[in-house]
Amino acid sequence: MFDSIGWGEIVVLALAALFIFGPDRLPTLAKDAANGLKKARDAVTGVRGQLHDTLGDDFDHLRDIDLRQYHPKTFIRSQLMGDDDAPARTGSTAASAAAAGATAAGWSPAGQTTRTRDASTPPPFDVDAT
């Protein structure tokens, strides 16, 4: 429950509560907080029981769902970087074959030459473009 709060922070919070509320009101506030947490826990348990009664076996299936996969960043990353089938080719097969043959012969459109990149160097990065 307190993964991000250490024991030192808990002691500091307890001392701050002691100074703010005083030694007279602190025990009653702690008892009220404990009762409030108990009521909240009972309410959550009741809602969970009602869902289980209503949904039946489907509720057990919902418990196994990993909600992190529906985070927008994760969803977009999986859609963009996920394994896809072979890319769809557009155009006729004769035009594609002619373009592949022209590229193999060393010719490229508009007189541009194609260069191969050394695999040991990182790809170019433009800060303004990204």
Notes on the structure:
- The protein has helices at 7-55, 57-63, 72-81, 93-104.
- With 130 residues, it is an all-alpha fold.
- Helix 1 packs antiparallel against helix 2.
- It is flat and about 80 Å long.
- The protein starts with 6 loop residues before the first helix and ends in a 26-residue tail after the last helix.
Query: What's the β-strand tally?
Result: 0
Tally of DSSP helical segments? 4
Order of H and E elements: HHHH
Q: How much helical structure, as a percent, in the residues?
A: 55-70%
**Helix and strand composition category:** mainly alpha
Shape: flat
**What is the typical, i.e. mean, pLDDT?**
76
Share of β-strand residues: under 5%
Low-confidence stretches: none
Q: Main beta sheet: strand number and arrangement?
A: none
Radius of gyration: 31 Å
Distance between the termini: 39 Å
